[in-house]
Amino acid sequence: MKILVTGGTVFVSRYTAEYFIKKGHEVYVLNRNTRPQSEGVKLIECDRHNLGDKLKNTYFDSVIDVTSYNETDVKNLVNALGDFGKYIMISSSAVYPETNPQPFTENQDCGFNIHWEDYGTNKINAEKYLMSKIPDVYIIRPPYLYGRMNNLYREAFVFECAEKNLPFFAPKNKKMQLHFFDIEDLCVFIEKIIAYKPDNHIFNVGNPESVSIEEWVKLCYGILGKTPDVRCVQPEINQRMYFPFRNYEYILDVTKQTEIMSDVKPLSKGLQQSYEWYRNNRELIIRKDYLQYIKNNLI
What we know:
13 strands; 2 domains; 299 residues; alpha/beta; Rossmann fold
């Protein structure tokens, strides 16, 4: 197949492009060529907001849109495409209001979420536009994505704490649940959508079970053969100063996902693979000042 992946140079989009190349497909990536390209991709060097006729003469069996964040993003791309088969958008679980009953299901109303603010509502508007214009569009709503090529300072931060033999400072509610999905599992799911053409067009995706903050930290430390000294921080301190996730617990219902993809990677295995990638790519991590804040204020 000819597959177009928007982005293609960082985490989700880069892993997606390389995954489908390894599967033998002809993969085009759309980006401004400001970062190194993956081996084997066909680069379309352009800003997605100024595409002109660069896409009009190529038929894509599938468009995998990883880098759309609002209605303008999807509108500009759709209007620039010629003929294509499926359109798959990576949306977000941020489209669900925090007031909805949990676990969130695909048939719930979407709306403003106080924890995600405009990010969630912009994704909603992008989804609505696509569903009004493209009959064969698929919307994927993941929780926190993790795994190989994750350059965000999430599991990498915990790995660094473990390497430095630091105690781990967790929010006071260390039992707060986090919901994850491995990047490879996301690509497997996209592949199944392309192959099976399911009747449902909106999917929550994620591991069958959530995990508490404390359990997640123990798993990360355990990759290095260590046991964390988890210390709870008082709630009056903003947890985003020392911890990589918002003070917001949510869980997705992934029943529809499991109907077409029953097996997912255990979190322990995915974290092991993430650590192996991190060890060889430390310079790619986008670090925040958590460690400095901890040193100055918590230790």
